[in-house]
Amino acid sequence: MGECSRPEISIVVPTYNEAQVIGAFLDKVREELDKHTKCYEIVIVDDDSPDGTWRIVEEESRKDPRVRLVRRTGERGLATAVIRGIREARSSLVIVMDADLQHPPEVIPDIVRKAREGYDIVVASRYAKGGGVEGWSRARLAISMISSIVSKILVREARKTSDPMSGFFLVRKEAVRLEDLRPRGYKILLEILAKSPGARVADVPYTFKRRAAGDSKLGLRVMADFILHLIALSRLARFAIVGGIGALLNLGVMYLLLPIAGVDASSIAGIEAGILWNFILHEEWTFKSKFAKGVAKRLIGYHVSSLAGIASTYIVMRLLYTLAGVNPVLGQAIGIIVGFIANYTLSSGVVWRGAKAKTL
Ligand code: GDD
Ligand code: MN
Predict the structure, then answer these.
(1) C-alpha to C-alpha distance for 284 and 166, rounded to whole angstroms
(2) 357 falls within a domain
(3) In this structure, which residue's CA is closest to atom 36 in ligand 1?
């Protein structure tokens, strides 16, 4: 019954416990696609769902060879399932969408049209003009929009779309290097965008529907995964975490030494403790990559580039203490914040310049 030698379009669908909706989903998607082409495939990647989703798909694939089942046993996860599906896909144009009909199949033709215009990644977006969400509480909408803004601040490539957290998108297979992807959690599009810097990206608006049946698997665990994912993708986030702990170390050392060493010596000792901590962690974690220069040079370079931060920390502390009688540890804390901005600019621009943003 093979209608064509190579499908024009592959639809990849991760499923876990979707027995209640998978039948309706397959019918609706085929009905939509049939209007445009007979030459497509639907690849369902099911993680051995206890509710037997895979059994329904298997049955369907016997009747209709355009439906393919990939049943994974011993492995679970939305992001890895999507990558597996993209690998299995036989077309170069691959659409990823959910099985629960929250991603309306009527949008597929718009997505394909954009891809044919030459875009490598086409995102079905809730936040593009004309898009939206159905029946979300203000709280859920706020969380979603904030996550999206944070990911755009931290991940440059995410700025190419209005909805980097979408689970409904198309990729041109040649444009993404699947072997570079480090999938985790739910946000597979974010990962693909981050690892495909040359890709041309376009948005197509859609309305995220209510779930027809069954439950969302998105929970606290998914939120935690998302934060870890952003840290892995963002040098700036790692820099801020290391610097934040370094600042606390700086202040702790100063606080302990203040009674015995006095204001100036304890301030400098705190600053140096913070610098050494920052250096070791930036070296091993933040900027982890193959470096051209040697470690001694970088340690000296880091001190030099931190001079602005060292000076502002010390000077701000001294001024606040001498002129306004501000507690020196509090003054140092304010000085650290002033110094942080200068420090990041110099570190990424000078010391670790050229360190490719290799992620964890
Ligand atoms: N294979 C596999 N393994 N599939 C999974 C797993 C898993 O561990 N967890 C979830 N899925 C499947 C579900 O069966 C469904 O088809 C799809 O992934 C989305 O899961 P939901 O639990 O319905 O997610 P959601 O509705 O809360 O969020 C979705 O929409 C958002 C907006 O587009 C996801 O696609 C999010 O990534 C997306 O941000
Ligand atoms: Mn859903």
Answers:
(1) 32
(2) no
(3) 167
